[in-house]
Amino acid sequence: MFILQIFLLLFAARARALPSRAHPVTAKVIHQVPNGFFENIAVRADATLLLTSVLSPTLNALDPTQVSGTLVPVATFPNATSLTGIVELPHRPGVFAVAASVTNSTSRATQPGSVVIWSVDFTQDKLKPEMQILGALPQAASANGLTVLRDVVLAADSALGAIWEVTEDGGAIVLQDDTMLPNAPPPALGINGLHVRGCDLLYATSGRSALFRVPVSAPRNGRVGLAGTRIEKVADFGAGQAPDDFAVDPEGNTWVAVHPGELVFVPRSGHNASVVVGNEQGSDASMNQPTSAAFGRGSPEQERTLYVTTGVGQVVAVDVGQSKS
Ligand SMILES: *[C@@H]1O[C@H](CO)[C@@H](O)[C@H](O)[C@H]1NC(C)=O
Ligand SMILES: *[C@@H]1O[C@H](CO)[C@@H](O)[C@H](O)[C@H]1NC(C)=O
Ligand SMILES: *[C@@H]1O[C@H](CO)[C@@H](O)[C@H](O)[C@H]1NC(C)=O
Questions:
Q1: Which-ligand-closest: CA of 138?
Q2: Which of 76, 79, 81 to mutate to test the pocket of ligand 1 (most atoms within 8 A of CB)?
Q3: Coil, strand or helix: which one is 253?
Q4: Which residues are bridge partners to 176 per DSSP?
Q5: Cβ count near 122 (within 10 Å)
Q6: Of 84, 169, 214, 220, which one has the greatest count of Cβ atoms within 10 A?
Q7: 297-313 pLDDT, tens per residue?
């Protein structure tokens, strides 16, 4: 039994594939909501962070350039308890898509028929944006990360293991695959974050501990085309590690929030991923249950700062300036 234990320890050590980065970075908690739970983040061109929470139907703004800035509620969504994905529409700068639903934050069960994707338009008023329904997804079992392909909003369904395209007439599944499924009953999640990178769609599946890539083509007549379904695993985070959402930098590298406690850098090539902040045990207080990441905007200093949200109500500023390769 002793030998078996040693074997298991060695095996566990070997399964640990990701080294820490050679150059340490600074990570600083810039905001903490007691008993909070930030789910996702997007950044306005004026540097303001927009934060969603599965515990609330209210979208909050935070100015990261202020020392101890305060959360400012900017929009509350009707018939919802939770907000998840948020993404700026590239064809409408200053307008963000937000996923709202009635979701139990403990069980992660979403009330059937409750998923609605809204647009939130800050172009006229930064404190009182104009809200409109982009489309409901009545058949979705959950809505998690959002991304945009040209002008089509895509939503990850963590329960069905699928990607929806948002349309005015109820949406449609554009891809459903085993690589997007949860690996256990709820609250375990399948596909979580997704982002378009050039001609590829990248997605992280919590239950598969991995980041995947699938080629996509530009939508035709509003319908998304998948160039075949050649799905490829880009990075593996190791058993028990659950990737959530991630940021893609201008070079195409990804910075992945991984539960329970790592920010992982995956070079565009997919080779030699490494831990930027935290560790696989989740014992680093500055990287506790990271959920999402987005680069700052508005100045060179902001652009080299990665803002990471966490499931314990934190916003962490990571200076990745010297770390980018
Ligand atoms: C919210 O739900 C109520 C009751 O189902 C419905 O009448 C109302 O139109 C909904 N509001 C929105 C903005 O969807
Ligand atoms: C949410 O789910 C938990 C765990 O399944 C359950 O105990 C709780 O009652 C649920 N809350 C609501 C408001 O349904
Ligand atoms: C990965 O790291 C190894 C060891 O440091 C190195 O030899 C190799 O060239 C790296 N591969 C890539 C693709 O950077």
A1: 1
A2: 79
A3: coil
A4: 162
A5: 23
A6: 84
A7: 999 999 999 999 999 99
